[in-house]
Amino acid sequence: MSSNLPAVAGTGRDSSRDVIQLVSFELESEEYGVDVLAVREIIRLPAITKMPNTPSYVEGIINLRGSVVPIISLRRRFGLSDTDTDRRARILVMEANGTLTGFVVDAVAEVIRISAGEIQPPPAVTHGNAAQECITGVVNHGERLLIVLDLNLILDDSERNALGV
């Protein structure tokens, strides 16, 4: 499934008037955003069943209304330190690469409406690891920077095959 977000501002047709909505969330006091159309639902952390022989960033699986959904810790995937999850922690259930996948985040903040022209390309230093490979842009939103992600790019082909997603 491809992202509905423009690759970068100013490419192709005049995208400056296109309005997109991003679900903003927090990880380690930084703010990130993903396309609202990719998010199926946002849930509180349920009991997560651990799976043996999975990468460290895989929290496990949950049963979501009869569907088995793998749960990925974005903190671990991005190389951030683990913290105790608090009551603000949520799982973003998304359709990633055609399969439902849950992503654990510290907190979900809001839905932000921006024009596609506000998305700037990511800085050149953001290449080389999982977190950086899925950054599609940066938005100057008020007094804060919002990092725009495409979570379809969070796992490479071999990791998707290993997880069955």
Write the layout of secondary structure elements.
Blueprint: E1 19-27, E2 30-35, E3 39-44, E4 58-64, E5 67-73, H1 74-77, E6 90-96, E7 99-105, E8 107-115, E9 119-120, H2 130-133, E10 135-141, E11 144-149, H3 157-163
Parallel strand pairs: 2-11, 5-7
Antiparallel strand pairs: 1-2, 1-8, 3-6, 4-5, 6-7, 9-10, 10-11
Q: Could you please describe the fold and organization of this structure?
A:
By secondary structure, this protein is mainly β. It has a single domain (19-163), classed as CheA-289, Domain 4 (OB fold (Dihydrolipoamide Acetyltransferase, E2P), Beta Barrel). 9% of the residues lie in helices and 44% in strands. It contains three helices and eleven strands, in the order βββββαββββαββα. The chain has helices at 74-77, 130-133, 157-163, and strands spanning 19-27, 30-35, 39-44, 58-64, 67-73, 90-96, 99-105, 107-115, 119-120, 135-141, 144-149. The strands form two sheets. A six-stranded mixed beta sheet has the order 8-1-2-11-10-9.
Task: Summarize this entry quickly.
This protein is mainly beta and 165 residues long. It is built from three helices and eleven strands.
